[in-house]
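quick one before i forget lol
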Amino acid sequence: MDDQQRFETGSAMHVSKSGNLNRRGFIGAVGAAGALGIVGAAADPAFAQIPASAQAPTSASGQPSRNGNFDLMEATIADIHDAYHRGLLTCRELVQQYLDRIAAYDKQGPALRAIITVNPRALEVADELDRKYKRSGLTGPLHGIPVILKDNYDTFDLPTTGGNTAMRTSVPPTDAFTVDKMRKAGALILAKANLQEFARGGNSLSSLGGQVLNPYDLTRTPGGSSGGTGAAIASNFAVLGTGSDTGQSVRSPASANSLVGVRSTRGLISRSGVIPASITQDELGPITRTVEDAARMLDVMVGFDPADPVTGYGVGRPPRSYTDHLRRDALKGARIGVMTNLFGTEARHQEVNQVMEEVISTMQAQGATVIRFTLPAYDTLQSVVVTSTWEAHTAMDAYFASLGPDAPVHTFDQLVASKTATPEAQAALEAELAIVDGLNNATYKDHFVNREKLRLAVSAKMAELNIEAILYPLQKVLVSLVGVPQPERNGTLSNGTGFPAVCFPGGFSTPTASAPIGVPVGAELLGREYSEPLLLSLAYAYEQAARTRQTPHSTPPLTR
């Protein structure tokens, strides 16, 4: 494709915050049709300049900090807070090390192209967080923790572009609901990540940011659409990342980059302030290196938002903390179903199947009972439960209406007419625009009935077998080579039911010349509504037993 161009760092964009900090109610524009679901966008290509101090790394990123005991690589929230407490690290030092890694590896070295915008005020914000820490300690559960947002999450101080050149200067008036919650929890928004343009596809290619590469195998994609976040977090560009998931866009990059990705129950996390693809299917979730960090981030992201009324369903559902449920022995006595029709049977499926058999063996060794089964209803229904095609036009118009008069794009029609998207994304947008009155379309309504049929089939089978969760590979084959569409993904079991799913590192394929430690393979657990505590606990028990995650060789620790 001719759209894999690189974008050089432009001048820093400084934006002052709007006086109105209240969430805009753009989901309300959908009215009685339902709460607007949100997915897909990115940041600025006039792309905020990396601070001069980060251009030529001078710190020993990945090496011990002042007193010799902090290692940046694979650092968790708990590691960082402990280092703050012991005086081994400041937020400024931490942020500088991440900036050094972005400067070294995102547009140089392996040139991952995972980042669209770096926050030009990152070090300034870090200094303020350090001052607050000196005064009163941690200000919240994410104090001083750098976060990389998929660039479809609105930020009042940075562009939100969906990866599209026409949106390169689009600075929303307020933060997305979840971004506001992260900042209030003490998080530092370090950068905005590249993505599949407007989240319309699975390869993480955009007109603004180019093609994101997989740090484990630079000939492959990082999955998508949240592939920039996946590549960045896998490469230790920050501690935490966010994704959006209409089909499998949180879990695909988690699978492809040896990460943890959570697609939450419909109604648990507000989607307001995130560029949408669907009213029904869109969900948000964390992308992290460990299950514990995913649980900590989920604690912050959940909550009722009047601007996304579907979150009313989630009131009272979250536990005090998802971390309270993480147990090393959670697999002991667990009954887990392995859904065999989500596995391939041909030679091309061998690498993934081998990893999954190792996952199953480890779970059994930890005391789990595994029940293999098929669900023929899935094969019948999985292609007729999609709702996004008919909802996108309504959802996108509502989003553009929320941006105000100074936005570079005011309507979905204007965006599509600009013809600025990559060919795949442009074709998807044109097809969505062509649908008139999609929410009253007969086929659309049939798909809602089919979604309920699938929910009932899954629920009934779980009850019949007395199983707590269903295990399967997120993708039946290894993540695609650059330029090849993603085949045989299993995201519909979650996006077609609204049930939660947690993808976690299952292992690696056989090493090759281009993939020196192999290509990551993600395993996924799905459960009933609001079963996130159980799913996270099962994934945590596996993680602690198997220790499968490894860092990519293409982005090693920096040295002096």
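fyi The longest strand covers residues 501-508.
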